[in-house]
Amino acid sequence: MKPVKILVIDDEPVVCKGCRLALSDQDHLVDICMTGREGVDLIREGAYDLILLDMKLPDIEGVEILRTIHETKQGLLVIVMTGYSTVQNAVEAMKLGAFDYLPKPFTDEELMLVVQRAIEKKRLMEENLHLRKELFNRFSFENIIGESPNILHIFEQIEKVAPTDSTVLLYGESGTGKELFAGAIHARSQRTHCQFVAVDCSTLSPSLLESELFGHVRGAFTGAVRDKEGIFDVANGGTLFMDDVTNLNLEVQGKFLRVLETGEYKPVGASRFHKTDVRIIAATNRDLKAMIEEGKFREDLFYRLNVFPIYIPPLQDRKEDIPRLVYHFLRHFCRKTGKRIEGFSDEALESLINYDWPGNVRQLKNVVERLVIMADDTKLDLLHLLDQLQLKRSWKGHPIPETLKELNAAKKHLLEQTFGQIQKAFLINALRASNGNITRAAERVGMQRPNFCALLKKHRILPEHIKNEKEN
Known about the structure:
The chain is of the alpha/beta class.
């Protein structure tokens, strides 16, 4: 723990020396000065944690020094000392930002007690600032990779809604990063100094769902041996992100609605309501209007949640962001594994861009992580992808062909989508084994050179690129 740096400003030598002696015994670093002007200069130049300030100085009133500190060093704590102990002086000093008031004469014990309280306050402030900065960095827009119009529009929406206390509903497929966007809203809100609590409603046991959200009292049910805080208690004052909110049953939906309308809820087994002040950000990957028609979701709750809806697009709708995402994840996992991988070949990057990514950003991140773990080369190419990424597309969801023409079209589409990727990798592999020499590559795989060249042209593969890879 680093020593605390303290400045004592007092025109009485005995007070200065006494404070230095008492505080130095506690391993604090203590400077002293006997005029206000010298004290102001030292405050501006030095990095002090705490000021002990006499209110009556020969050249400058302590009140003026307090005002200077308040204007220029707002995080600096001040303990006021004076022999003229009056309520009026104390009130004025506190209004100007003094942490505490110490009337003269005071004992070493009284001095140490008030200084220790100030040090604890200072450390709490620094810890809170560090946590807020860490939170903001974690959920900064720089960590939400993307420059597509869809993403930029979401950033604009977040900037507008974040400073308010309005409820936000995030729509988006699984894996699109809804929690990251929810965190960005919290980090830019008036509640950033309080907790951001994320709960996945799909992971909560249906039998214990109400207890998890609202808490319970001792004896409420078998196994409830003590009172337990619920999620609304924990998130009080901050932001609560509820993912997969459609997993709440109708009974809990009604109780959740009361929280949104009145801020009141009743723990399981309790006889009295509790209050909470929490901002709700909900998320879903389902069609809420369809669920309302099916009787699975309350219409009044939907309107309470749908105050400010934000749609998070799937990855296939912002393919221009894929190269940035891919290289962001590549750098991240290279740092974690200690590997040095330069990047992706053009063919590999093209395949990543053209893939549908049903699992969205989460799937892309997992694929890049596996590629980094398995890679032995400094560049990731199409062969690596064929090993790690299932490029075959499921037929599920596509209409069954009804005519020969439609069947042939489907066959052509599947060949282009799957076999085309394998064919391209086959050509690249042959060229690499032959150091970019087309004739040797064709002989190696048992093809006529013109046919081999035709396939190279079809897939826009340049042999000199393969040769350059070998040389580099």
